[in-house]
Every structure is written in structure tokens, then in C-alpha cells.
Amino acid sequence: MHPLDSRFNNLLVPAGCLLAILIGVLAVVHDAAWSMVVLWSTTDTYMHGWFVIPLAAIMAKNKPVPNIKSAPAPIWQVITIVSGWSVVLLIGRLAMLNVVQQLALISLIPMMVIFHSGWRVAWHYRAPLILVFFCIPFGDFLIPWLQSVTADMAMFLLHASDVTVVRNGWYISIPAADFRVAEACSGINFLISTFTVSIFYSFTYMTQLHKRVTFIALGLLVPLIANGIRVYLIIMIAHWGNVEAATGFDHLVYGWIFFFVILAALFTIGNRWQDPIPELEKEADARKKLPFSFKANSLAVIAVAIPLCSILLDLASNIHRDIPVIGEPISSELSINPLRPKFPAADALSQTMVDGWVQYQAVYLNENVDKKMIGYQNRWFDGNIWSIKNKAKDTLVTSDGVHIPVSKWTLVGLSGKEYQLAISYCVGGEWAASVMKAKALQVQHKALLKDDGGVAYGWFSSALGTLSNMGAQISAKKMCP
């Protein structure tokens, strides 16, 4: 065989197949991929995503090439992995979950290493292969918990400083001023970025396991504690007599200066804990290359899986049925509800009074990228006015004997006024109190080519009573046929 023919077969053909696979996957998850890029570009929380893959590449380049024979994964392993990957991709699309689709997209990187060089080589490069997943915008669910933890730490320090203070949820009041631990004060952006950097640093410059574990733990604890201290100092500045200075201090420290102080502290510790490069690694041949070779059948399995996923996704789209609207139609912007719920893309909105409770209904006949029953664009209350005091599970027994599971929240405002909020979701005649179960029901029904939407129900009351009297006035079968 001519040398050029051999090079073409061993390099250009596999590279072309890989490019085709990447284009195919992007065609299936282009909305989720674009959403990821937009979040990198528009939010401080996930801006680190731009640097994750380059950092992973640096980690891989700095590791010596292992003295391991390249052994592409056998076909049965390829089929197993690709089958699982296809299921994850399909679930992500059916559930309209960008994070799951983004997970499927990024997981192609370690998959290709396994298919190309085998499990032993993939294990050798496990640190950079794990790091690449940190480019996925993920962690918003931690914000309420971080708000509560930050408020707890600030309250502890204020009590230790003998400051007169009252707390209502995420609101902290001292004689000089009132403060709210907002989403921007949760410290989520510093926590995620610092944690990512700590993983990169520990696996690049440390070899001992206990040092790596300790340094990564510091990457979690240092920004968490520092954020609580920051909020405490802001409140103390107001307590010392200058509320305007506290506001200016907040804007100054919350930005990059605060972030760099945290990183400087971590790097100072990390610099002292660096391990010398082992002699064997120093002597490794930097020019050594792993052979670039794929089994043709491995690429074929992936190439077949992508269009099959696309066909199934097309079959599962645009399926819906009529759902009754209960109560008077309302505008998404003009709600009489003091909690100000908002479902801007719903097909129909209504609310009605039921035994002292406001019943709010958001109907979704189908879903698409911009219209989801469960999504970040929706809210049950205005977070600038209300905060969560506690959460619990409850059951709403209706007039027709149906037990509706609900998630019951107690909300509190700055004045101390409390509201009860009960939430449940109806999907294809079934009820779910949690968003995860509701998403699972949506996936199940879409996979069976049934429903493609659902109804979100919220019941609001300023009274602190039970749901039993209200439940006796409604019919679950009419609400969720």
C-alpha cells in the first residue's frame, strides 16, 4: 500500500468520522449547546466555562505519556457505552433538560479517549477528563441552600458581636437597616469557579491523595465561609453608622477583588503543598505519541446511534391533548396574587378563589425550547419580596377522594408576614409534588407518544391553616383528566 494511502486510512478517515459525529451530535443538541455558550458569555456564575476545556488540555499535555499500549475498546463495550449514551441523550431531549443534553455532548470527549486508546489510558488521564464536565452550567439548585447557609453564618457572627438582629427567612434586620441575602449574595459564582480551579491545581501540582482531597475540600469551604464573613462585614458597616458605605462596600468586594482574594489564599496554600515531579515522569519522552487508531466498527456504532436518536425525538414532538382551564383567564403579568407567580410561556393561565385559597393554574399543551412547564423562566413567587422559611410535604384530599401530593412552602416577607404555598404538577392524569418526578412523568409520556405538556397548580393563602377544607371543594379528575 502506498504510504499516503496508509496515512489516509489511519488518520484522515477516523478524523473525518469524528468530525461528522461531532456535527451530528451538535445538530441534535444545538439548542442546549448554544444555551451553554450563552451562559458562559452572559453570567458571572458560569463564565469559567470558557476556560475549563483549555485547562483540561493543559493538564493532559503536562502529564507524561503513559507507558501503556494503546488498546481501543472492544466492540461490545462500544455498543454498551453508546447505548447508554443514547438513552441519556434521548431522556435529555424528551425532558427538555439542557443540562442532560450538555452532559451527553461533553461526555463524547472521554468516550472518544476510551474508544481510541482504551480504559487504561483513559484512567491515566482521568483528571482532565473529569474536569471537562465542569464547563457544563450546573448548580443553580444550590442557590436557595447557599442563601440560607450564608444567612445562618451572618446571624451567628452578628450574635457573637452582640448586635441586635431579627431574621425572617433570608431577610436580616438590624436597627440601622434591613438586608436581604439575595441570589447574588449566595456566592454560587465564587463557589463553582473556586472549586473548579482547586481541582485543576490539585491534580496538576500535587501527587499525594491526602493533599488533593484536602485542597479540593478547601476549594469548597473557603469561598463558603468567606462569603458568610463578607455578608457579616457588610451588615456591620451599616451597624457602625454608614448604610451608604455598606452598599458601596458590597458592590466593591462582591466583584473580582473578592474573588481574587479567595484564589490568592488558595494558591498560597497550594504553592506550599506542591509535590516534586517524580523522576520517572521527568525522564518521560515528551515526543512520545499514542497511535491514532479507531476501530471502524466503533465509529459505525456511534454514527448509527445519532440518526436513530434524532428519529425518535421527531416522533415524540408535537403531541398534546386538550386540558380544561379552571377559573378566570389572567395575564402572566397582571396577577392579583401578592406572591406574583409568573409562567410567561404558558398556553393558558387562570386563578380562582377556593375556600380562602387562591388556586393558580398554568396550562402547557406542549413544550419546546422556549416553553417549559418546569424551567428557570417560571416562578411561584417574587424572590425580591419573599423568601422561603421552610418546606414540607403534604397531601391534598379532593372531593372525589383523590390524594394529591403537594410540596408545601412557608414564605415570609420583610415585614414578617407569612404565606402558605402548596404546589403540585399534573402530567397525563398523574400528580407529582416534586419537579424531578414531574419531569420523569413527562419523559415517560412523551416516550410513549402520549402527552407533551402538563399543568402546574399552586395554592396560596395568607392563613396558616391546613389544606383539608380547601381540598374538599375541588375535583382532581376535572383538574387533571
UniProtKB/TrEMBL annotation:
The keyword Hydrolase applies. It comes from Alteromonas mediterranea. It is a multi-pass membrane protein. Keywords: Cell membrane, Hydrolase, Membrane, Plasmid, Protease, Transmembrane, Transmembrane helix. The chain crosses the membrane at residues 12-33, 45-62, 74-96, 129-147, 181-203, 215-241, 253-273, 294-313. GO terms for cellular component: plasma membrane. It is found in: Cell membrane. GO terms for biological process: proteolysis. GO terms for molecular function: peptidase activity. This is Exosortase A. The keyword Cell membrane applies.
